Amino acid sequence: MNKIQQNVLALIAGSFLLTSCGLSLDDDYVGGDFGKLVQKEQEWNDSIDVIDNIGIEDNYKQRLYSHKNENFDFKAKGSLNEIHVGARIECNSNGGNMTIYCIEQFRDESWQYGPEIVFKNLKGNKMTNADGYTVRMLDSLEIGKKTYRDVLEFDATEAENNGCNYDKFYISAVDGLLRIDLLDSIKIERQ
Length: 191
Hints:
By secondary structure, this protein is mostly beta strands. Helices cover about 10% and strands about 50% of the residues. A twelve-stranded antiparallel sheet has the order 6-5-4-3-2-1-12-11-10-9-8-7, with no helix packed on it. Strand 3 and strand 4 form a beta hairpin. The longest helix is centred in the N-terminal third of the chain and has 18 residues. The protein is globular. The chain starts with a helix and ends with a strand. About 5% of the residues have low confidence.
């Protein structure tokens, strides 16, 4: 058997091995470091206490749903300040798509749903969409005296028309909401 035939047989055997393990070259996945968000099977609801850098305390209700090769869905809402944070990742064979949800405040002070901010074909650890919004995966982030791992950072500071009522948020793949940076330099952090 020559070298070419050996390589072809090795490739065929490898394909059978992957398929027999439940994986296929066409399976859905999330690209780059963003895949860390869908690695743990989990579903939970809870509340966390937060405080801003002025000293105002609030309580956020949060929900996280994550299933490997399916999706990641996170939502958090404050009880006092009407800040809403949402991130959804859907796995697909192109690396997955991420949608960020936020609330926009209109001039008459009524609250309406803000834009859906979409990132397609996730790859690497940082992506910026055509509107200037950026998502980035951080290995870790320290809040208070605790270090959180696998953190998603959403950044709207370079967006042409920021439709959110905050500049940034940080969520952990396991622990949920960590910090929100509002438009006016106020930072809200979990306690």
